[in-house]
Amino acid sequence: MKAAVWHDIKDVRIEQIEEPVVSSSQIKVKVEWTGICGSDLHAYAHGLSKEAHPISGQKPPITLGHEFSGTIVELGEDVSGHQVGERVAIEPLIYCGECYACKRGYYNQCNQVGFVGLNRDGGFAEYVVVDENMVHVLPDNVSFEEGALVEPAAVSFYAVRESKLKAGDSVAIFGAGPIGLLTLLSAKAAGATQMIVVDLSEERLKKAKELGATTIINGSRDDIAATILQLTNGGVNVAYEAAGVQPTMTNAVASVRQGGQVMAIAVYSKPVSIDMGQIMFKAADITSTLAYRHIFPEVIDMIATGRLDVKQVITKKIQLDDLIDQGFNQLTNDVKQAKILVKPTNN
Ligand SMILES: [Zn+2]
Ligand SMILES: [Zn+2]
């Protein structure tokens, strides 16, 4: 079968590999759509660990792709909770089940947490074998395209659920990439009224406006926090930091009101400093979330009932053969793009 296999930095090959085989407790899925994530771009440009993952036991070459939907085509002999033909979205977390966090159900905090598609063969392929507990059935009115968006939507929706946001609150979202846009949709669904989005790109801000942002602010301005304080009469209730750099964190801290909260969703490649004097003066808090846990069924329900219109973040659909040029390279160079979906088969 055809797959996009990571061999090394800037060396992802679309090549023929063996179809995966199910073990007794696993499920084989024919992939319909797979989204490209920032972490796929990071793996392409900056690399993956060459060590075998402690849980999956797999090391590169590894098939990328962790945001995917598909159809069940085969069940291992011990699988009883699913059927061939079911349409599914995949929750790609790999965890040990034995550590302090796992034993308490906090599997996203597992000290060996990994992902299908980064630490084990993933969804940029015609077929994937996954564990039974990774499979979530999609109702008929949720499309495969929307199914591929459940994973990134879960990141944002979980962060909003874990934040202090209450209906009627104001929010600021720093970063209007796919996660920032899905955070905007989640905050709107959770009842936020004033929704301010900050980004460096006018095209992304335009998209945020289409998705319901009440105010958009260009991140190159030097009065961002002052503008937000003025618009909200003293600051937002929650600032979501979805950019992962110092200036956005500084502005997020400066934009929250007394008793407000900064919720960090981004991945930080470098440490950032935080003005604790401001946090203390406002008795605000600062917290973060990593991925999600126990939330896929709720996200699927939110999509099925029309409360989370995730397909709005899709800007392009491509074939697997075009993954590097029209996927990775375009996302790196063209800020108009939000979520690009990839079709691994030609039908
Ligand atoms: Zn991702
Ligand atoms: Zn664990």
UniProtKB/TrEMBL annotation:
Cofactor(s) demanded: Zn(2+)
Family annotation (CDD domains): butanediol_DH_like
Which PANTHER family does the entry mention? (R,R)-BUTANEDIOL DEHYDROGENASE-RELATED (PTHR43161:SF23), SORBITOL DEHYDROGENASE (PTHR43161)
Report the family membership: Belongs to the zinc-containing alcohol dehydrogenase family.
Question: Is Transmembrane one of the keywords?
Answer: no
Protein EC: 1.1.1.-, 1.1.1.303, 1.1.1.4
* GO MF term (any one): (R,R)-butanediol dehydrogenase activity
Its lineage opens with: Bacteria, Bacillati, Bacillota, Bacilli, Bacillales
Q: Which Gene3D superfamilies match?
A: Medium-chain alcohol dehydrogenases, catalytic domain (3.90.180.10), NAD(P)-binding Rossmann-like Domain (3.40.50.720)
> Is Zinc-finger a UniProt keyword of this protein?
no
Which keywords, in A-to-Z order, does the entry hold? Metal-binding, Oxidoreductase, Zinc
Name by which UniProt lists this protein: (R,R)-butanediol dehydrogenase/meso-butanediol dehydrogenase/diacetyl reductase
* Pfam families listed in its UniProt record: ADH_N (PF08240), ADH_zinc_N (PF00107)
Record's InterPro entries?
ADH-like_C, ADH-like_N, ADH_Zn_CS, ER, GroES-like_sf, NAD(P)-bd_dom_sf
Ranges of residues in domain Enoyl reductase (ER):
7-342
